[in-house]
Specification:
Strand content: under 5%
CATH topology: MetI-like fold
CATH class: Mainly Alpha
Number of domains: 1
Shape: elongated
Order of helices and strands: HHHHHHHHHHHHH
Radius of gyration: 25 Å
CATH architecture: Orthogonal Bundle
Largest sheet: none
Helix content: 55-70%
Oligomer: single chain
């Protein structure tokens, strides 16, 4: 007679919502952070962005030389131990100039991303929730801005209004809110049909409170991802405008007009002047896109599948 089996039942695989060390289920914030940290490129991108922000906005302490410190007798010299990225035609340390120029480029990118996302979220949210003439007018204006050639409009507007950083931010914001407005409108059209929205209306909750307390938290993922990705688009647009001569003007400097000033050095011994601002723009755009991908996966884990 065979002895009864004493083997224990197989252990079930760990669930996606594993318990925290204290025995409780992790909250949504901790779960979102854990998903983001699993995205290695996003973590690397975040580290690069933080390093660039610290270097540029803290250039007064990080830069090896003061801003616009000229040594005309030295002139343009290739990278060396004393000047890691070399010097330009005026003998200025190029690493210091790149850091100070990045302060304007990053400030414009961040400002445009935040302002355009705020404007687009408000207009898209109101259009989707109110419907009717508000939705119709908002979407027609959005369609109009989407078909307008952005670079041409930006160049004309900046040429007429001036090329200060504040003007560039306002003009870029005026053209950058349309995409997030369409996305938010689509999300709100879906969310406003949910049962908890109907219950809030029955209880007499005001429309403003419904938008603020019930709809906006559900749009947080879309908003955060859009802010991160809008930084890259704003940096590229500002650099393009400055390269074409319509953006930031001397004595202010940005990565775009540094590229413009060095554009004639291709194929010469001073071609190194192109590499640093170009690499800074490339690193910023890649890092922002990696962070955006990580945030998208963190807020919407099914999106990557």
């Amino acid at each position: 007679m065979n002895a009864p089996s004493t083997a224990s039942p197989p252990t079930p695989p760990p669930s996606a919502g594993a318990l925290a060390p204290d025995g409780t289920e992790p909250g949504p914030r901790r779960t979102t952070l854990r998903r983001f940290l699993r995205h290695r490129l996003a973590v690397v991108g975040l580290f690069v962005l933080v390093a660039l922000a610290v270097g540029c906005f803290g250039a007064d302490w990080v830069a090896p030389y003061p801003r616009n410190a000229q040594d005309v007798l030295l002139g343009a010299t290739p990278p060396s131990g004393a000047h890691w990225l070399g010097t330009d035609q005026l003998g200025r340390d190029y690493l210091s100039e790149v850091l100070y120029a990045g302060r304007i480029s990053l400030a414009i990118g961040l400002s445009v991303a935040v302002l355009s996302t705020a404007v687009g979220t408000v207009l898209g949210g109101l259009a989707g929730y109110l419907g009717g003439w508000a939705e119709e007018w908002t979407m027609r204006v959005t369609d109009l801005f989407l078909v307008v050639p952005a670079i041409a409009v930006l160049a004309l507007a900046i040429q007429g209004l001036g090329s200060s950083p504040v003007t560039i931010v306002l003009v870029l914001t005026a053209l950058g809110w349309t995409l997030i407005a369409r996305v938010v409108r689509a999300q709100v059209l879906s969310l406003r049909e949910k049962e908890y929205i109907d219950a809030a209306r029955v209880l007499g909750v005001s429309d403003l409170r419904i938008l603020w307390r019930h709809l906006l938290p559900n749009l947080l993922g879309v908003i955060v991802v859009n802010v991160s990705l809008s930084v890259a688009g704003a940096v590229i647009l500002e650099s393009t405008l400055s390269f074409l001569g319509f953006g930031v003007q001397p004595p202010r400097s940005s990565w775009g007009n540094m590229l413009s000033q060095a554009s004639g050095m291709v194929g010469t011994s001073q071609s190194y002047l192109l590499y640093a601002p170009g690499a800074a723009i490339l690193l910023t755009v890649l890092a922002v896109n990696f962070v955006g991908d990580g945030l998208r996966d963190a807020f919407d884990p099914q999106g990557r599948h």
